[in-house]
Design brief:
α2 packs across α3, α6 packs across α7 and α7 packs parallel to α8. The two termini are 31 Å apart. This protein has 372 residues and is α+β, with helices and mostly antiparallel strands. The relative contact order is 0.10. The protein is 33% helix and 24% strand. This is asparagine synthase (glutamine-hydrolyzing).
Length: 372
């Protein structure tokens, strides 16, 4: 997890360094390992890095050979190695082994269509100084966040809403329609947020800001093409897709593992990771009966012969950390499981840097009635 931010002044005003530093400062938790800033007249880019791939040469904002293209990128490109080889064959020269640099050269090669070739979770922004434009995109399912504020004077973006709100001219005013949506659906549908004037870039979308005009376009849509095949075809197909996905997600130059609840989703991830090598898993629960799955996680870990680190959340801790959790959320969150996720992520961070989880399985496989 990294943090990106930036300001583009639509009038002839230089971006102040202190603006970018304040925006970065509230996102240090997203990237505590390294930070970077780029300023050029009306544009300012900021970055907070969590080192995962190419620990020593992946500094951002990253640029191309002649310096005309600068990028800030949050996420991971899972097919970056194959894209890198393809770009090298076409004459592109790489100075690092990071997935970030692949985005730079892919943009040089394909322009706005570069995003169609990316497989991963990402949000990024490119400043093209020759074309005088900002180009940014968000992954197909909106895994990585992207907030923005657009007005006649400036365009501001960041990985977190609180980063944008460090600018004093941006008001903290609740959007009444968004509040109604939240109370109805238990979330605020994109592109709106709980605050007026701050928006989210929708999943599978990119934006172009040129000549002070913002345009947003969709680059991908889900398509369903039913096939009349035997059940075994789909069973084996899903197994291979899961195995491939876990292998690609575990590309890392730092220690990795996974969360383990003992349920179907996380147990499958743990079993497939075990095929790659020894791993550590992490579980949290409560001492109150009926509210904990630690025993199921313990039995799963024993069966798979993997390490399982367990942590009990006390009622006092639950209440103590609640204000901090609310601060991290940026917007209202109706899912109480988010609290357990916070504690299991905290426990995992003490031993590893990258963790896989079963998040998203219910949406894909219809785990609850609301997805039917």
């Amino acid at each position: 997890m990294c943090g990106i931010c930036g300001v583009y002044n639509k009038r002839e005003e230089k971006v102040k360094r202190e603006e970018i530093e304040k925006m970065k400062g509230v996102m240090v938790h997203r990237g505590p390992d390294e930070e970077g800033t780029y300023l050029e007249d009306r544009i300012g880019l900021g970055f907070q890095r969590l080192k995962i791939i190419d620990l020593f040469r992946g500094r951002q904002p990253m640029f191309n050979e002649d310096g005309r293209i600068r990028v800030v990128f949050n996420g991971e490109i899972y097919n970056y190695l194959s894209l890198r080889e393809e770009l090298k064959r076409k004459g592109h020269v790489f100075f690092s082994d990071s997935d970030t640099e692949v985005i730079v050269h892919l943009y040089e090669e394909k322009g706005f269509d570069c995003v169609k070739d990316l497989r991963g979770m990402f949000s990024f922004v490119i400043w093209d100084s020759r074309e005088k434009l900002l180009f940014g995109a968000r992954d197909r399912f909106g895994i990585k966040p992207f907030y923005y504020y657009d007005c006649p004077r400036k365009f501001v973006f960041a990985s977190e809403m609180k980063s944008i709100l460090t600018l004093p001219e941006i008001k903290r005013e609740v959007d009444q329609e968004s509040l109604i949506h939240y109370l109805t659906f238990q979330y605020v549908p994109e592109p709106a947020t709980i605050l007026k004037n701050i928006k989210k870039l929708p999943p599978a979308s990119y934006f172009i800001l040129k000549e002070d005009t913002l345009k947003i376009k969709k680059y991908w849509e889900v398509s369903f093409n039913p096939e009349d095949k035997p059940l075994t075809y789909f069973v084996e197909g899903i197994r291979e897709k899961l195995r491939e996905s876990v292998r690609l997600h575990s590309q890392s130059h730092v220690p990795f593992g996974c969360f383990l609840s003992g349920g179907i989703d996380s147990s499958i991830i743990a079993a497939l990771l075990k095929e790659i090598g020894d791993i550590s898993t992490f579980s949290v629960g409560y001492r109150e009966k009926g509210y904990s799955e630690l025993e199921e996680a313990r039995r799963t870990a024993r069966y798979l012969n993997i390490k399982n680190h367990q942590y009990f959340i006390s009622p006092g801790e639950f209440i103590q950390h609640l204000p901090r959790l609310i601060w991290h959320f940026d917007e209202p969150v109706a899912d109480p499981a988010a609290i357990s996720l916070y504690f299991v992520a905290r426990a995992a961070r003490e031993k590893i840097t990258v963790s896989l989880s079963g998040e998203g399985a219910d949406e894909v496989f219809g785990g609850y009635g609301i997805y039917g």
